[in-house]
Structures are given as structure tokens and as C-alpha cells.
Write a structure and sequence with these properties.
CATH topology of chain B: ABC transporter involved in vitamin B12 uptake, BtuC
CATH class of chain B: Mainly Alpha
Oligomer: heterodimer
Radius of gyration of chain B: 21 Å
Number of strands of chain A: 12
Order of helices and strands of chain A: EEEHEEHEHHHEHEHEEHHEE
Radius of gyration of chain A: 18 Å
Largest sheet of chain A: 6 strands, mixed
Shape of chain A: globular
CATH superfamily of chain A: P-loop containing nucleotide triphosphate hydrolases
Largest sheet of chain B: 2 strands, antiparallel
CATH class of chain A: Alpha Beta
CATH topology of chain A: Rossmann fold
Number of helices of chain A: 9
Order of helices and strands of chain B: HHHHEEHHHHHHHHH
Distance between the termini of chain A: 35 Å
CATH architecture of chain A: 3-Layer(aba) Sandwich
Number of domains of chain B: 1
Helix content of chain A: 25-40%
CATH superfamily of chain B: ABC transporter involved in vitamin B12 uptake, BtuC
Structural class of chain B: mainly alpha
Number of helices of chain B: 13
Largest interface: A-B, 33 and 26 residues
CATH architecture of chain B: Orthogonal Bundle
Helix content of chain B: over 70%
């Protein structure tokens, strides 16, 4: 899906990324985990093409990122920024319809797609509310719906990629859990997700794969249950904690 | 029972259709007033004398077209600039284009007073110079604000402030060297007037405003994405830098044409988009036609008022629009201030 080959990036004498390589898998949620300043956001920017790596390259669906046109990328890849966007006094429906402008389709087709996403994400109650009237959690869900609308093609999400930068930072436990349940729905519909997540336990519970970053280097990457080990996490965060397996509920968590 | 999107859209369209009809009525009414009122009141229902016919077809009709065109033009430019700058206080005067035009028009008035230029040439000399000034201000603006092919909005506004300041300084210099009579002419030009408009000028302005309207309409969705955020627009496939350049050049052309024939008719680009947003919200495809109509009607009515308040003389129209615009501007700032302090 998205492959990065040996990417390095530095600003002045600061090396932010050192030879990071990983093939992000299709149909999975992959989390990018690391301490503050480990280069998570920089890696995400590299994957998005906002930051051009000094060395190495990023391929999206087998083609170098730089060779895609903006429109082609917009049809296949969506991004949810950490703090969202400026909220206009615009009804949710209009905002979602705007995400369809790069498709050549009839008005009714656009409306059908948007309606489908609204149903999938249980947004019916707020579809005619204005963006600037929503709560933080509601707004995050609308943003997810926007990305979903942007990518949905003939009611399908096959081969589509969603990138998120710390989506849970403004959400409480309940809202964050809901968000990940919707992300699981997104993956079940054929999409792939890459998410920068600061909450280890949320990542362990909902993400299929995990990439640990330390000082710009990839410390470990792979299936979440293989990467989420005591040794890896202690090394990654410079702490002395424990991984606890809750066999009954089938979840892992890390605590100090 | 929850309504679906299609039903909602139809309800919206019906709502706006009524509003469109009302506003179109106001526009027609203001054009009728513009044709009939003035130094000589003409009743269109009576049989018209030859003189009355000539007054209408050769003086008042082109003048009415010009007021509608420039009012609409300034208003849609304000609307688009506010979207590009993501700043509700933006207006065509803000980016320095209008003051560039004013500077060069004043220079033209100064030159034509000190040199012997024949009268018909003077008629074109001043607007032509105003246009050159507006174009120069635009190129200067793009040159300063452009950084590696992209235009930062904050830098754009600061560049506008710098250009305005530079133009004001040079204008001060012109004022200093000008004699009393020239000074009077310069001052009057800056206050704005729609007298002396003929068909060629009105049609030129009308055509350009129509083209600008088409450009803005075509890019309406992209402009909305841009208003939400530049990165947001880019990730949704919008070539942000190209779009901004196209929009800015269009805005500058329209402002230049509006200002060069009529002087500065201030605050239209600020006031009209705001009133319309209060009526219909932020959806650009709904706003554009409404802003066009309201802008055209407002300036036409202001021009009528300018003509009838002190018959047979004419009040400078810029005074009227400013008298209307300044309190509105203050109210906007107060409202924004309250919002910012709550944030």
C-alpha cells in the first residue's frame, strides 16, 4: 500500500528521521508510536509528501509519491489533521458534499455517497447542524466522515488510505473508543489506516500493526502483539514498565 | 421523520428562490430610480421628449449599468478576498490595489494641470493612469508576497499595508506640490463620482465583472475548501497556489476597472458580503448571485441618493458609502473583538 524505503530527514544538524523503512499493510490499522520528539509527526508528514526526505523515497501503490497528481491522490488518500480545520458556519451536509468535488458525478450520486457515510457513522442526528455548533467529539466524527466521503468510490473503499495525526488528543475515553470502532469499520469496508497515536493502550487494543520510533529510528515494527513487548516499550520510552495481558478480555496494556 | 439530503436541498432552493425574487425586485427598482431621478426628474410613464430620451439613453442608462457593474464587482471581490484571507475584514482596498490606482490618478491630474493636454486626451489619461497604478500595485503585491511559488496570507495582508502606506506617502508629496485647483480635483476624484460615464466605459466594466463572476463561480467549491484551510484544500486536490494567483489577478483587474473610471467607492466590498452572509450563510454558490445583486443595488441607490440630496449638485458617492460603511466596520470589529476575547 504505502512503502517507505530508507527515508531520512534532517533540519540543520537535527536529524529527525534516520533510514526508516516499512511497508504499511493494506486493510490494516497501523499505529506509529514513540516518545515526544521521536519523529512521529515528521514521519507522517513524510508519508503524506508534505516533507520531502533527504534520502530514500515513499511509494504509494507502487508509484513514487511525487509522481502522483494532487487530484489522483485526493481520490485515494485522505488526511485528518491533529487540530482539525477552521470551522465555518456551514451545515455538516454541505461540508461533506464539498469532499466530493473532485469526483465527476451527478448531484444525486454525491448525495447518495454522503448519505451512506452519514448512516455508517451514525451522524443522522447532526447532519443539518452547523460545524461551529458541534462538540469536540462530534466534530472529530464529522472529520472522519469527511475523509470517508472523500475516499468512497462506488460505495467502496478498496485500496483507499486514511492518515490521522493523534486523533484522540482532544477526546475522552468513551469518544476515543468510538472513534476507533469507526476506524475498524473503515478498515472492514476495505480501507487502510495509518495513525499517529500517543495512547499506547488504545493503540494496543485497536491497531493491527505497530511501528515504534525512537530518536528518528525505527525501533521495531510488525504485528501489534509481537511489537508490544516489555523490552521494546521500555527501550522506546526509557522507562521501566510492564506489559499486562488480560487473557479473559484479550487485551494488552502497558503500565509503569 | 428525518428528511434526507435531496429533500433538504429542495427546501433550501425554495427558500432562496423567494429571496432571489425579492432582491431582483430591489435591483430593478433601484435601476428605475437611477433612470428617473436626478437634476431633472423624468416620468417614464409620460411621453418622453427628445431631450428626455437622450438623457436616459446617453447619460443615465450607462451610468446605471456602471453603478450596478462596479457595485457588484467590488462586492464579489470583497467576498472572494475574505475567503482567501480567511479574514472577515478583508476588502479590495486592503491589498493596496485601490490606493495604487488613486496615486496614479492623482499623478495624472497633476500632470494634466501643469501640461497642456487636449481635453479628450485628459478624459482617457486619468483612467488609464489609474489602471496602470492598480496593475503596478498588484505586481508589487505579488512580488512581495510570493515566496517560492506560494503566497502566505499574512504576508499578503502585510504587503497590502506596506503598499497602502507607500502610496499614501507619495500622494502626500503630490498634494504638497499641487496648486489649489489641482488639489481640489484630486480630492474630488478620490471621493468617487459616477458623472461622465458613457456606454463604452460602462460596457467595459460590465463585461469584466461578468467574466470575474464566471471565474469565481467556476472555482466556488475550491474557494470554499481554501477558506477552510490551505492544507485541507491541497489534500482534496486543489492547486492552491495556482488558484490564489488566478483569484488575486481577477480581483485586481476588477478593482482597477471599478476604481479607474469612478474614483474610490469605499466599503462596498466589506459591507455587502457581510450582510449577505447574515442572510444566507457561507455556501459560496448561494452567496455569489446574492452578493452580486445586493452590491449592484446598493451602489446604484447610493448614486441616486448622491444625485438627489443636493439637487442640482452631486454629493461625492464615496462619502455616502463611507458614511454607511464606517459604522458597519466598527460594529464588525466590536463583534469580532467579543468573539476573540471569548475564545
Amino acid at each position: 500500500m504505502l512503502d517507505c524505503h530508507n527515508i531520512s530527514y534532517s533540519i540543520g544538524k537535527n536529524t529527525l528521521l534516520r533510514y526508516v523503512s516499512w511497508q504499511f499493510a493494506q486493510g490494516k490499522i497501523t499505529s506509529i508510536i514513540g516518545a515526544n520528539g521521536a519523529g512521529k509527526s515528521t514521519l507522517l508528514k513524510g508519508l503524506l509528501g508534505i516533507v520531502k526526505p533527504d534520502v530514500g523515497r515513499v511509494d504509494f501503490q507502487g508509484v513514487a509519491l511525487s509522481e502522483w497528481t494532487l487530484q489522483e491522490l485526493a481520490l485515494r488518500r485522505a488526511y485528518m489533521a491533529q487540530h482539525g480545520t477552521q470551522r465555518l458556519a456551514l451545515p455538516v451536509v454541505e461540508y461533506l458534499l464539498l469532499a466530493r468535488v473532485h469526483y465527476t458525478e451527478s448531484q444525486s450520486s454525491a448525495e447518495q455517497h454522503v448519505q451512506h457515510v452519514i448512516n455508517e457513522l451514525d451522524l443522522i442526528a447532526m447532519m443539518f447542524k452547523r460545524l461551529d455548533e458541534l462538540s469536540g467529539g462530534e466534530y472529530q466524527r464529522v472529520e472522519l466522515a469527511r475523509a470517508w466521503c472523500q475516499l468512497l468510490d462506488h460505495q467502496q473503499l478498496d485500496g483507499k488510505l486514511l492518515l490521522l495525526d493523534e486523533p484522540g488528543s482532544a477526546l475522552d475515553i468513551n469518544q476515543s473508543q468510538k472513534l476507533y470502532q469507526y476506524l475498524r469499520k473503515f478498515v472492514a469496508a476495505g480501507g487502510s489506516v495509518i495513525v499517529v497515536e500517543h495512547d499506547l493502550n488504545v493503540a494496543a487494543k485497536y491497531c493491527d500493526e505497530m511501528l515504534l520510533l525512537k530518536q528518528g529510528q525505527c525501533l521495531a515494527a510488525g504485528k501489534t502483539n509481537e511489537v508490544f513487548t516489555q523490552t521494546n516499550l521500555n527501550q522506546c520510552f526509557n522507562v521501566n514498565g510492564q506489559v499486562v495481558h488480560d487473557e479473559k478480555r484479550g487485551v494488552m496494556s502497558f503500565s509503569l | 421523520m428525518q428528511i434526507n439530503i435531496a429533500q433538504w436541498r429542495i427546501a433550501q432552493q425554495q427558500r432562496f428562490r423567494t429571496l432571489h425574487l425579492w432582491l431582483a425586485g430591489v435591483l430593478v427598482l433601484s435601476v428605475m430610480l437611477s433612470l428617473t431621478q436626478g437634476a431633472m426628474a423624468i416620468d417614464l410613464l409620460d411621453a418622453l421628449s427628445e431631450l428626455e430620451q437622450r438623457i436616459i439613453t446617453e447619460i443615465r442608462a450607462p451610468r446605471a449599468l456602471m453603478t450596478v457593474a462596479t457595485g457588484a464587482g467590488l462586492a464579489i471581490c470583497g467576498l472572494v478576498l475574505q475567503a482567501i484571507c480567511r479574514n472577515p475584514l478583508a476588502d479590495p482596498g486592503l491589498v493596496g490595489v485601490a490606493s495604487g490606482a488613486a496615486l496614479f490618478a492623482s499623478l495624472a491630474i497633476l500632470l494634466s494641470s501643469s501640461m497642456v493636454i487636449n481635453a479628450t486626451l485628459t478624459l482617457f489619461f486619468i483612467p488609464a493612469m489609474a489602471f496602470v497604478g492598480a496593475a503596478l500595485a498588484l505586481f508589487l503585491l505579488l512580488a512581495i508576497a510570493n515566496y517560492k511559488g506560494s503566497i502566505n496570507t499574512l504576508v499578503l495582508i502585510l504587503s497590502g499595508v506596506a503598499i497602502n502606506a507607500g502610496a499614501a506617502t507619495l500622494l502626500g508629496l503630490i498634494t504638497f506640490v499641487a496648486d489649489d485647483n489641482t488639489l481640489r480635483l484630486i480630492t474630488f476624484w478620490q471621493l468617487g463620482s459616477y458623472s461622465g460615464i458613457d456606454w463604452s466605459k460602462a460596457l467595459l466594466a460590465g463585461t469584466l465583472v461578468l467574466i470575474a463572476l464566471c471565474v469565481f463561480w467556476r472555482h466556488a467549491n475550491a474557494i470554499m475548501l481554501l477558506q477552510i484551510g490551505e492544507q485541507h484544500a491541497r489534500f482534496q486536490g486543489v492547486h492552491v497556489d495556482k488558484l490564489k494567483r488566478v483569484l488575486l489577478i481577477t480581483v485586481a483587474f476588477v478593482t482597477a476597472i471599478c476604481v479607474c473610471f469612478t474614483g474610490i467607492v469605499g466599503f462596498v466590498g466589506l459591507v455587502v458580503p457581510h450582510i449577505c452572509r447574515m442572510l444566507v450563510g457561507t455556501q459560496l454558490r448561494i452567496l455569489l448571485p446574492i452578493v452580486t445583486i445586493v452590491g449592484g443595488a446598493l451602489v446604484t441607490l447610493a448614486d441616486v441618493a448622491a444625485r438627489v440630496i443636493i439637487v442640482p449638485a452631486e454629493l461625492p458617492i464615496g462619502l455616502l458609502t463611507s458614511a454607511l460603511g464606517v459604522p458597519f466596520f466598527l460594529w464588525l470589529i466590536l463583534r469580532e473583538k467579543r468573539r476573540f476575547s471569548h475564545a
